[in-house]
Automatic annotation (TrEMBL):
Domain NIF system FeS cluster assembly NifU N-terminal: 8-127
Protein name: SUF system NifU family Fe-S cluster assembly protein
GO biological process, one term: iron-sulfur cluster assembly
Molecular function via GO: iron ion binding; iron-sulfur cluster binding
Record-linked Pfam families: NifU_N
Family: Belongs to the NifU family.
Length: 145
């Protein structure tokens, strides 16, 4: 195992063991999206607060594997403060990364880059993308209301 792979594993386990933004927003503050991955049993409840076209807060609750839960933790960290458009762009970038496509090196993906190796394991891609699909649905739902 390379030192980079080892570092990525440690980052993933850190987010799994000490998730960031775990919790739920008050219903009056935002909207909640619930998604399940029936293949493996992962579930997520993503709470989003959208104000003036920006993601001002994001929290999650869920059950699942280390990939699923760490991805949710990383995603909530990176989207806070971004515009809805920027967040949707990150959803696409993450999807591309999970498909093994090259992504724009100028983007600061932060800890999310640690999940790039998931692309080598097709069965785990749905685990990694669950929270991101919830984010995409939430932003689209928020833009319609």
């Amino acid at each position: 195992m390379s030192s980079l792979d080892d570092l990525y594993r440690r980052v993933i386990m850190d987010h799994y063991q000490k998730p960031r933004n775990k919790g739920k927003l008050d219903e009056a503050e935002g909207l909640t999206i619930n998604l399940n991955n029936p293949t493996c049993g992962d579930s997520i409840s993503l709470s989003l607060k959208l104000e003036n076209g920006k993601v001002t807060d994001a929290k999650f609750l869920g059950e699942g594997c280390s990939i699923s839960m760490s991805s949710a933790s990383m995603m909530t960290e990176v989207v806070k403060g971004r515009t809805a458009e920027e967040a949707l762009h990150l959803v696409q970038v993450f999807s591309d990364m999970m498909q093994g496509k090259s992504v724009d090196d100028s983007l600061d993906l932060g800890d999310i880059e640690a999940l790039s190796g998931v692309a080598k394991f097709p069965a785990r891609i749905k685990c990694a993308t669950l929270a991101w699909k919830a984010l995409e649905q939430g932003i689209k739902q928020g833009e319609q209301s």
